[in-house]
Design goal:
With 132 residues, this protein is mainly alpha-helical. It has one domain. It contains 6 helices and no strands. The protein starts with 6 loop residues before the first helix and ends in a 13-residue tail after the last helix. 8% of the residues are buried. About 6% of the residues have low confidence.
Length: 132
Amino acid sequence: MDEAPKAEENDEKVNDTPVGRYPSLVEDYRLLRVLIDDHPNAVMAIARADGGKVFAFDMFVMGLIERSLHLVYGFIATFDGWNLVSAAPLVRLQIDNLVRLSYVARHPEMHKVAIEAMDTEFRHMEDPDGIV
C-alpha cells in the first residue's frame, strides 16, 4: 500500500504555488475555495424556492451557476500550476456570467429572454429596443 505523502512534501507542493510564494493571496484563495461549496447551495436554494416550482429564469441561473463552478475549478487548477495566461481569461468568462445575468434579470420579459439566452449566443441577442 502506498504511504501518505510526508508533511514536508506537501509543504514543498504548497510553496511551489502562487499562494505559497505570495502569502498575501492566502485569504482570497481560501475564499475562492469556499465559493466552490456555495455553488451547489445556491442551486438548491433556487430549486426549493416557491415551493419547488422552477421557472425559465431559474433554469438560466442554474446554468450560470454550473458554468461558474467549472470556471472556479479551472481557475484554481491553472493558477496553482502557474499557468496565469490560461487563468486570466477564466476571470473574464466569470465576468461574462455576471453580464448575462444582469441583462436577463433587468429585461422586462425576463423569463422569455432567459429561454432565449439558453439557446442563443449572447452576442446575437437583441436588447429591449431590438438592437443587437
